[in-house]
Amino acid sequence: xxxxxxxxxxxxxxxxxxxxxxxxxxxxxxxxxxxxxxxxxxxxxxxxxxxxxxxxxxxxxxxxxxxxxxxxxxxxxxxxxxxxxxxxxxxxxxxxxxxxxxxxxxxxxxxxxxxxxxxxxxxxxxxxxxxxxxxxxxxxxxxxxxxxxxxxxxxxxxxxxxxxxxxxxxxxxxxxxxxxxxxxxxxxxxxxxxxxxxxxxxxxxxxxxxxxxxxxxxxxxxxxxxxxxxxxxxxxxxxxxxxxxxxxxxxxxxxxxxxxxxxxxxxxxxxxxxxxxxxxxxxxxxxxxxxxxxxxxxxxxxxxxxxxxxxxxxxxxxxxxxxxxxxxxxxxxxxxxxxxxxxxxxxxxxxxxxxxxxxxxxxxxxxxxxxxxxxxxxxxxxxxxxxxxxxxxxxxxxxxxxxxxxxxxxxxxxxxxxxxxxxxxxxxxxxxxxxxxxxxxxxxxxxxxxxxxxxxxxxxxxxxxxxxxxxxxxxxxxxxxxxxxxxxxx
Length: 490
Ligand SMILES: [Cu+2]
Fold this sequence. Notes:
This protein is mostly beta strands.
């Protein structure tokens, strides 16, 4: 692969002043290979253990950063491979200096197993829970969901991916060779200081708009290159950023063939020119590299951020490019002809059922996501809210009835807010009164509300008033700042 000087400048523009290391790596001609997280396969054993631990990570090769991870990793955790129809015994051990709660984002389990803020694990303690899994294949994730501390914990590294699998991807004609033609990309922006150290020091602007970084990490790595076969590749995209929304695209102009959204597969692939992915959302896409040419997964600046005067792009010190509209690299894809090609054509059908919920007699609820303005912007002090209320641990917002479908109308103020519901999956019915964008046609657990969205939510999991489900904005500074509520399901 030959990178031109223009490519390098584009990369440097994206990563700002800390691009020196990625540039050095790329200028070697091949680049350092992206590593997949270790795979922790519990499909046979029916059990897994996650040990949260402190560590030191040198992301840019210039300075150590204090980070948190799971098991052997100092940042992030393994990919959990779980069956779609399986009971898995999970043990989560806290070797950190403070409590944390671990939420299984997208897993349909009762409130008592969901890992929300009412289930904190004290230091040196173990949380053991049976996860009774019965839902379609999907890419999910796990992350800290600790009262007032989620943003800090996730940016430190307390997160990881989950593959829910039924073992039938070969029959679907989908790439499934982990790390070869089936890549998991946990995309996160992080802020680094001039010394190359990761920092999290949200100021007033960050609390209001969400904390964005000046370096893109993929699976906790900066400036890497993915070696891929000359065939169809599958990218499981997970936006694990605190606040940044990506508009993902192929630099070569190829389509991204969407095959799955948050909660599972579509009926057939949908070809997209670009894919908007907000914090908390996942999407699986196929990319056709059968012509053998290298490509780069890039992101444009998203409009909802640009609308706010480019606020999300204005890190202090370094910036992700001075112009808010500037495109930046996520990950170069280098075709390696020594890798075996398993899939060389796009499947016409995936065969999943698209959501079509019966909304007759549905209970209707309205939610207004409110962003505080001016004055008293103190972290964790009721700055953001939903329907005028900031989150309180001891206030239940409503009760949903198990086995029913509700219609929720969500209005977002000021900027796009990724709205996530625990313990349920939903169908997007309309966006801003119009048709649903292709990326939101499948089953979802998080939707970017940029204006107004109407969704139909199915409640099949129980949750008590003591261990309720959360609904919240997945911009983590908004969540910690109070843009969250809770409900039980009886
Ligand atoms: Cu928000």
